[in-house]
User: What shape does this take?
Amino acid sequence: MFPWLQRKPLLDEVSTQWQFDLYDWALRHFDSGIFYQHTLVVEPSERFFPGRADSPQGMAELVFDHVRRHAALSHWPCEVVPNHLNLGPNRVLVDGAPRQVDGKEPEGVTPQQRLTIQYLPDMVRNPESLIASFAHQLAHYLATLAAERPPGGDDNWPHATEVLAVFLGFGVLMANSAGNVRIPRCGACAPPPVDRESWLSQYDISYALAIFCVLKGIPPAKVVAHLKKPLRGWFRRAYKDVQGRVSERQPIGLPDR
Assistant: This one.
C-alpha cells in the first residue's frame, strides 16, 4: 500500500491499550452485569433529565439525582453544595455493592456521613458541563473503592476517572464538554457559562465512548446524533477502529456476557 494512503492512528498505541486496560479494570471491580445489562448511553435530553427547579441549588440537586440514578449509585448518601470544585479525601460510606440498580439511600444517615458533591453555581447554565462534572466526581469516589488502583498510576488518576465516567454511561456528555472554548461576548450580554475542567481531550473521551458502544453493541448512529458536530466523523472512525480490535481479540479479562 502507498504510505501516503495509510491513515494515521486515531490515538497512539499506548493510549489505546491504556483505555482497554481501564475497561478491563472497571469491569472486574464495578459489576460487569450492571454494565452490560443496565448501563445506558446517557443523552442530554428531557428523557434522561426531566423536571425543573426554581433555583440554581434546586436545579443542581435535581440534575445530580438523575446522574446518580443513571450511574447506579442512588444508594450513596450525598450532599450537593455550591463551592469551588475540589475533589477531597472523602470516603464513600455504602452498604453492599458499590453499584446497585434501583438502590436507595439508607435511613438515618447523618450529615457527617454524606459524601460532599460540589458544583459551581454558574455551571447550572451549562447543563452538559454540570452533568459531566457530577459524573466525574462520582467516578472519582467510585474508583477509591476498587481493591487495586486503576491502570496508569496515581499521576493519571483524573484521566482514568474520566474514562470511568464514560464507563458509567456519560461518554456523550463528557466528550461534548471537554475542550470547550469560551466565546468572548460584549459587556452587555450575559457572561458565558462555566466550562468544566477536563483532563483528557475530547478525542480521547470519544474513543472511550466508542469502546463503550462496541462492547455493548450500540450502533454509532444512536450516539452520533447527540455528539457535537466536530466529533461525529471522528467518533465513527473510532468506532470502526475499536470494532477491528475487538474482533481480533477480546480485551484482556473481559467476562462472558
Q: What stands out?
A: Residues 11-179+191-248 form one domain. The radius of gyration is 18 Å.
